[in-house]
Amino acid sequence: MEIRQYEDGSAEIVFNDQEKEIVNKKGSLKITPEGLRHFGNLLVKIVADFQINFKEDVRNMQTTEGQDIETS
Hints:
Layout: E1 2-5, E2 11-14, H1 17-26, H2 33-53, H3 56-59
Antiparallel strand pairs: 1-2
């Protein structure tokens, strides 16, 4: 999985063929405790990097549990 962020602050999550096959076959991804720790560490870094490219209004947005979020 690769997360690409663009200069406008938007991002794209790209899965390779093997990852797509696993999700299509199993319907989910199982992650070991160690793998989840590494994944979490990478997500924290990605979120910090995202903040750099967000415009001020997006940077200050807050999300609440249960909120409908529009995606494309």
